[in-house]
Write a structure and sequence with these properties.
mainly alpha, three-stranded mixed β-sheet
Length: 308
């Protein structure tokens, strides 16, 4: 292979899930259903939050941002994955692969930071209820949400600038169903140590800093709740946090080890299954968790259904 081909490939092959044709059709049906349900759930949440004035609060402003994010989070991966189930041609252009990676990393990093912002919002609401309206003003919430998106975009830009410079000369087959950092690092034939180091440092910053904010917020919430004199007050405080805490546990538990050691994770055959959890299952469950465990959202949905 000549030097030009060593420095750049025109396309990759996404191997995806290597199963029989019958199983491919079954997987297509399952993932299509999951994708459509995820879109529907998040669109419904966005419409309900917009239509109901009682939900025009910081907590639901951030929930709306999360729903908007997850619509694009799944859309970056699902259409290409669904198309690959139904065709033997599983090629993706190099530029398309880099674009998919860029937007996926953007949304993942933004979600980490957004979940931390949501934890901070709950902390202020429970620990400083009298100062809550002045602290979590509309302007501050907008700045906080914008900061989450900017951090995600900047992080993805830095990561991609190192990944895109790698050489892919021995193989153009990616043993995954989308372009992710770990498979690209593993098929590169150039020295990827700098790209791995940058990715590891950014992963620590984007994952561990928000995680520390989440943990600190919930420690403060726990102490504040334990100081409440009434059991009813404690139950109400915990109920406003339970849905967010469940989403945090789901998202972090499925992504933490994958993105702190990307190249090592690729060595395990379970990598695709873990990826399915955080690219398909978690986005599908998140809206259900917020709807089932949040009384205000449930009431708003019920009224919207009854009035339609």
């Amino acid at each position: 292979m000549d030097e030009g081909n060593q420095t750049h490939v025109s396309h990759f092959f996404l191997l995806g899930f290597t199963t029989s044709a019958g199983h491919q059709r079954l997987l297509f049906s399952v993932f299509l259903l999951a994708y459509l349900l995820t879109l529907m759930e998040n669109i419904v949440i966005l419409l309900v939050i917009r239509a109901k004035p009682r939900l025009h609060k910081p907590m639901y402003f951030f929930l709306g941002n999360l729903s908007f994010l997850e619509i694009w989070y799944v859309t970056v991966i699902a259409p290409k994955m669904l198309a690959d189930f139904m065709t033997p041609d599983k090629r993706i252009a190099f530029q398309g692969c880099m674009a998919q990676l860029y937007f996926f990393v953007t949304f993942v990093c933004t979600e980490y930071i957004l979940l931390a912002a949501m934890a901070y919002d709950r902390c202020v609401a429970i620990c400083s209820p009298l100062r809550y309206p002045s602290i979590m003003s509309g302007r501050f919430c907008a700045q906080l949400a914008a900061g989450c998106w900017v951090c995600g975009l900047v992080t993805a830009t830095i990561k991609l600038s190192f990944i895109a410079r790698l050489r892919f000369c021995h193989t153009d087959a990616i043993n995954h169903y989308f372009c992710d950092i770990s498979p690209l690092l593993n098929i590169s034939c150039s020295d990827s140590s700098l790209a791995e180091l940058v990715d590891f440092i950014l992963a620590l910053l984007v994952i561990m800093v928000p995680l520390c904010i989440v943990v600190t917020s919930y420690v403060c919430i726990l102490f504040a709740v334990l100081r409440m004199p009434s059991a009813q007050g404690r139950h109400k405080a915990f109920s406003t946090c339970s849905s967010h805490l469940a989403v945090v546990v789901l998202f972090y538990s499925t992504t933490l080890f994958t993105y702190t050691r990307p190249k090592a994770m690729y060595a395990y055959s379970s990598n695709k299954l873990v990826s399915v959890l955080y690219t398909t299952v978690v986005p599908l469950l998140n809206p259900l968790i917020y709807c089932l465990r949040n009384k205000e959202v449930k009431d708003a949905l019920r009224k919207a259904i009854l009035s339609s």
